[in-house]
Recover the amino acids of this structure.
């Protein structure tokens, strides 16, 4: 066996991200406590920016590297760039320290028992947890590999690199720690369960084709359409693992609990970046490796997509907690995105990528706003606490309304353009009836988005109405980016649509 | 095996197929030299409006100056454009400038393009010059008003919309301008919205205009269906071959639009109420420019009306009725501005009569329109000056003897009087006589009515003149009339020059531009044979006008005018005071049934439609609440659901495989 040639240039974004994460671990071990935070923040932002620059420099690359283990092509680079951008904005939220009077969004010491003497002492001493940063970087690094993985094993490893830090991060909330820890444990257990599905699917596909490389599997499907049972079972197991990550129904149940329990900056990061990465990986595996079997798996995706956008929208109607509502909304969005995956065309690929980046940035902004509405026990996420917030803080209510309108797909917002392009490509691919159902689901979804706007603007503030805290420039920046992207790509989407259209072929 | 998919996953070049861009930027075509800057005509006032609206109170200090500048510069540009246009040969005086594809859906394509030709330049000049002067006048008139900056923002918005209306190269863009001036008019009539009457008048103006707008939208739809295009060039080229029934329908729809915008019978009632707006608004929008947009629309669409004789006859009829009705109202109203508004209706009636004569009259319609723009703006500004001096008193019965204290205003008002009354050699003597001659040549009845209306014109103008400036002072005790500030006087002086010399200038006695010859290539012209000599009509008209002046002077100039309006008057006066009872029948026939209809619709909306919506919503909400119960919070339960989901997947896989 020969050692594969290492494609250093194409790998730089990944190397920078994971290398910075490793340095971050060393910083935790050796740097004095007071200087850790500035060093970690510098490392993180420097790594994100450097990796982004390298992605831009690599633009136009179209090749398979590392002996077929990874692919660097338009979709990989577009999605890596999106993940890094979303990462930067999410990192701004993570760095926020002014909105919670007792510190940032993370527990002073995650190891201290909730409610214990230790915890109170650590909080009183003003300890901060800077391990958040290397964990965050590892997760971003995993995502970068995930969207470029070109064989099932690399994909699995990337999936775990991405997920394991998230399981930890989910349990680190400063407030309502029990809820947070429960969320983390749930996420971990169910995530492990879904990983097992993925791995078993990998094994079956290996049994079917004798290889784990996407190219090899595709060649096998084209050449030898026997042992279909093994192939279908393999696909079924594999997609369960991926559908879990994008929180498609019925593999979604973790999402509301985890979104609600996690520290809000991490929720924002999960809702936005994990979705991008998981859809990126799903698109590659379904289009490249399993593209030959499209007529076999497409009906399954139709069913799952319809189930996902309907169940997501309908349950969201009944929510009284803003974070949980956004969780269900993200489930509904996953349904619309699955529509794009099932369409299998270049237009659908471009539309899906456009949708992902605009949805991601708006989501980070929306969660950033949620972190500003607080009462004495922390974030006030109950809908009652948002009553009449439009009179207390027109800016926050206005920005949040904009995000909601974009989620609902109202014209002149990026959400409309994204939804329209996905629906158009799905209709072009022949699933008009599914688009019809999706439009119905959008109408249902619009109901609960607009309801929040009504609550914010058309009711008087009560004594339950929460206060709006002034954030530092970091959160403000994250929200401004979200608002700007939502408006700019709603009014003039062409440049980014063109970019996505120019990056819509997978290398093979 | 899907081939689409194979191509998707193959290596190769990055694909070059891109989505159709939403805005295609195309550089100006056909325009060159100064014509490259045509767009500034629209852009400057639009920019001024945007700045003043957005900057808000911060621009209070300098807002009016910016507003004036954004009106005066286009006026200079318009003159320059006229000179450049005159330097071109007759056949190449139509210049279009294309900016971008504005709307395209299927085969429907409306470009954002403007068109300058002999007809539109006349309007551009009228709008920018009169508009510029009125902007200057408003600086003084609104000096005390806390909302002056907002007022200028709206005036600029109006200018931009009006210029768009006359410069548009297709009917859809014209519609945009049409609605824009409607909006500006609504905002400005209701500028003093704290006064109930002003707010109601604004609403009334808007609603009645909307009735006309429906006509314009129907006309545009019919054009698209018939010609496949709404661009002027395409429509006019295809019109001669089109079927005459369709042309009649389009013509009538356009007439409906014109009737609403130009306050013609039976959609005229809003104009008198609109006098609640500030006087510069009445002068600019409700006398000189916007209300004449209907005439522009008809003359611009001459290719359509030429194929629709029935529609033309209706235009003529509407014009005749309004001409008399407006003059009648003008004779009976005691409020100076309302009397002038009646006069405006009547004069636009003249233009409709001219336009209704077809090719024999189009040019005269525009000719009279331009003359009217000057003398009527002059008269309105004069009335504003008087009201300014009299503590905003509008009723002429409390004026009198003002010639002594407001000499400049008085003289300019006389100029306006001479301009409108038709005494030679002033403005109307040329334009009105042309209309009378053209009408007589086609239809002696129409000719007789126009001559009669000329007499009425002299009557109401003499009445206004006498009641305001002559006789004894009937002022309120606290009135201290004084001359207006310079910023108000100079525009009046300049406009009164227009009222005196405009006619001479336009027919080429002064200068070398004959407006009739200038317009004929665009509007077409067929001289109608007149059975009597032209001078005989002029003499008859002159005599009628003099009779009107003398009789009215004997009534109002030589006798005392009581402060209280006499109650024992003829039926004619009563009807005139009541605006010919139009409001009454509008209210009984339209408003009340309309109110019942809306009440019923609200009821149906609440019970029927909202009920259904709420029912569905609560149904789905119920499902949602039910589904929420699946969210138990137990991981074991979630894992079980996942397994269920997996089994579902497998089932679908194998079902799909099976079939």
């Amino acid at each position: 066996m020969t050692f594969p040639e290492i494609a250093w240039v194409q790998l730089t974004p990944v190397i920078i991200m994971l290398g910075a994460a490793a340095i971050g671990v060393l910083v935790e071990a050796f740097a004095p406590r007071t200087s850790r935070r500035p060093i970690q923040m510098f490392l993180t932002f420097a790594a994100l920016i450097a990796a982004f620059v390298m992605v831009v420099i690599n633009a136009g690359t179209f090749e398979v590297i590392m002996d077929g283990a990874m692919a660097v092509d338009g979709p990989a680079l577009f999605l890596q760039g999106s993940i890094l951008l979303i990462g930067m904005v999410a990192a701004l939220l993570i760095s926020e320290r002014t909105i919670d009077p007792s510190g940032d969004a993370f527990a002073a010491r995650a190891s201290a028992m909730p409610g214990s003497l230790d915890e109170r002492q650590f909080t009183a001493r003003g300890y901060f947890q800077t391990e958040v940063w290397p964990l965050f970087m590892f997760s971003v690094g995993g995502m970068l590999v995930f969207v470029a993985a070109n064989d099932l094993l690399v994909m699995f490893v990337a999936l775990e690199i991405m997920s394991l830090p998230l399981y930890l991060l989910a349990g680190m909330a400063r407030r309502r720690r029990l809820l947070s820890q429960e969320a983390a444990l749930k996420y971990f257990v169910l995530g492990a369960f879904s990983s097992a599905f993925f791995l078993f699917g990998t094994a079956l596909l290996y049994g079917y084709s004798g290889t784990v490389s996407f190219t090899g599997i595709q060649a096998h499907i084209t050449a030898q359409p026997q042992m279909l049972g093994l192939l279908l079972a393999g696909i079924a197991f594999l997609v369960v693992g991926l559908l879990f990550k994008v929180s498609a129904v019925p593999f979604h149940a973790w999402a509301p609990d985890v979104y609600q329990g996690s520290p809000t900056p991490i929720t924002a990061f999960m809702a936005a970046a994990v979705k991008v990465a998981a859809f990126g990986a799903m698109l590659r595996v379904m289009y490249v490796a399993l593209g030959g079997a499209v007529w076999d798996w497409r009906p399954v995706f139709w069913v799952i997509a319809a189930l996902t956008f309907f169940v997501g929208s309908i349950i969201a109607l009944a929510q009284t907690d803003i974070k949980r509502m956004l969780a269900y909304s993200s489930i509904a969005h996953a349904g619309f995105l699955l529509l794009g995956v099932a369409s299998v065309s270049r237009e659908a690929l471009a539309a899906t990528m456009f949708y992902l980046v605009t949805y991601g940035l708006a989501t980070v902004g929306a969660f950033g706003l949620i972190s500003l509405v607080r009462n004495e026990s922390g974030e006030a996420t109950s809908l009652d606490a948002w009553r009449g917030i439009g009179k207390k803080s027109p800016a926050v209510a206005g920005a949040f309304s904009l995000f909601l309108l974009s989620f609902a797909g109202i014209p002149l917002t990026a959400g409309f353009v994204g939804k329209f392009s996905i629906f158009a490509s799905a209709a072009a691919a022949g699933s008009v009836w599914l688009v019809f159902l999706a439009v119905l689901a959008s109408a249902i979804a619009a109901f609960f988005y607009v309801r929040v706007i009504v609550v914010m603007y058309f009711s008087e503030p009560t004594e339950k109405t929460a206060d709006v805290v002034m954030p530092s420039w970091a959160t403000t920046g994250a929200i401004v980016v979200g608002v700007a992207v939502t408006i700019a790509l709603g009014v003039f989407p062409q440049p980014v649509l063109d970019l996505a259209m120019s990056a819509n072929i997978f290398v093979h | 095996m899907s081939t689409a998919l194979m191509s998707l996953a193959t290596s190769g070049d990055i694909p070059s197929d891109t989505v159709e861009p939403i805005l295609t930027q195309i550089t100006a075509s056909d325009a060159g030299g100064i014509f490259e800057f045509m767009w500034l005509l629209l852009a400057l006032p639009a920019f001024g409006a945007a700045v003043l609206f957005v900057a808000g109170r911060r621009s209070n200090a300098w807002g009016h100056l910016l507003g004036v500048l954004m009106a005066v510069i286009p006026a200079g540009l318009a003159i320059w454009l006229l000179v450049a246009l005159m330097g071109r040969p007759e056949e190449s005086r139509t210049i279009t400038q294309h900016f971008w594809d504005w709307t395209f859906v299927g085969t429907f394509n409306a470009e954002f393009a403007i068109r300058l030709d002999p007809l539109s330049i006349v309007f551009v000049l009228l709008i920018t010059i009169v508009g510029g002067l009125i902007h200057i006048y408003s600086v003084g008139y609104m000096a005390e008003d806390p909302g002056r900056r907002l007022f200028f923002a709206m005036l600029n918005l109006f200018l931009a919309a009006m210029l768009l209306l006359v410069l548009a190269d297709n009917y859809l863009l014209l519609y945009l301008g049409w609605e824009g001036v409607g909006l500006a008019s609504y905002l400005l009539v209701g500028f003093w919205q704290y006064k109930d009457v002003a707010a109601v008048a604004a609403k009334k103006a808007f609603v009645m205009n909307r009735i006309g707008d429906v006509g314009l939208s129907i006309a545009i739809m019919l054009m698209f269906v018939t010609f496949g295009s709404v661009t002027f060039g395409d429509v006019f080229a295809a019109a001669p071959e089109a079927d005459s029934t369709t042309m009649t329908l389009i013509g009538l729809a356009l007439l409906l639009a014109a009737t609403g915008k130009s306050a013609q019978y039976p959609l005229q009632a809003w104009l008198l109420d609109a006098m609640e707006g500030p006087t510069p608004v009445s002068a600019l929008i409700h006398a000189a420019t916007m209300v004449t947009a209907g005439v522009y629309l008809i003359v611009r669409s001459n290719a359509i009306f030429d194929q629709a004789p029935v529609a033309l006859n209706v235009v003529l009829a509407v014009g005749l009725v309004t001409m008399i009705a407006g003059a009648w109202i003008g004779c009976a109203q005691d409020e100076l501005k309302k009397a002038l508004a009646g006069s405006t209706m009547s004069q636009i009636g003249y233009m409709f009569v001219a336009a209704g004569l077809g090719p024999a009259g189009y040019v005269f319609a525009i000719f009279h329109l331009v003359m009217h723009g000057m003398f009527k703006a002059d008269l309105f500004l004069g009335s504003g000056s008087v009201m300014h001096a009299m503590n905003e008193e509008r009723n002429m019965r409390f004026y009198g003897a003002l010639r002594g204290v407001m000499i400049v205003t008085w003289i300019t008002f006389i100029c306006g009087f001479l301009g409108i009354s038709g005494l030679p050699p002033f403005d109307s003597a040329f334009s009105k006589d042309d209309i009378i001659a053209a009408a007589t040549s086609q239809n002696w009845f129409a000719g007789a009515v126009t001559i009669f209306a000329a007499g009425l014109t002299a009557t109401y103008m003499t009445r206004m003149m006498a009641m305001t400036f002559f006789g004894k002072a009937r002022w309120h005790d606290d009135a201290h009339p004084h001359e207006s500030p310079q910023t108000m006087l100079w525009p009046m002086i300049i406009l009164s020059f227009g009222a005196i010399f405009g006619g001479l200038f336009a027919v080429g006695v002064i200068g070398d531009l004959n407006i009739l010859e200038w317009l004929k290539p665009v509007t077409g012209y067929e001289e109608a044979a007149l059975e009597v000599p032209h001078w005989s009509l002029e003499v008859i008209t002159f005599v009628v006008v003099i009779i009107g002046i003398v009789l009215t002077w004997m009534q109002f100039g030589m006798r005392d005018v009581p402060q209280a309006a006499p109650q024992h008057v003829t039926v004619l006066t009563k009807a005139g005071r009541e605006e010919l009872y139009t409001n009454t029948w509008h209210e009984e026939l339209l408003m009340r049934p309309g109110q019942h209809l809306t009440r019923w619709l609200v009821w149906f909306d609440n019970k029927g439609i909202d009920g259904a919506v709420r029912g569905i919503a609560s149904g789905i909400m119920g499902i949602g609440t039910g589904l929420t119960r699946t969210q138990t919070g137990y991981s074991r339960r979630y894992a079980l659901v996942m397994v269920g989901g997996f089994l579902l997947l497998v089932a679908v896989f194998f079902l799909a495989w099976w079939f």
